């Protein structure tokens, strides 16, 4: 399966439920990876955990627990 996001989006809407599930799982992994990269960039740029949490839509504690110990 390809990691091209456009292809994965199309496959996630496929009539074949197994193909759609595989694509949805691959999309979720890619989104998690991208979020981690953006959080890292935000921290390097000096943003506070509260600002990052607000942008993501979670509590400061949740974002710090997920990304703070890396």
From TrEMBL:
It comes from the Bacteria. This is Homeodomain-like domain-containing protein. The lineage of its organism: Bacteria, Bacillati, Actinomycetota, Actinomycetes, Streptosporangiales.
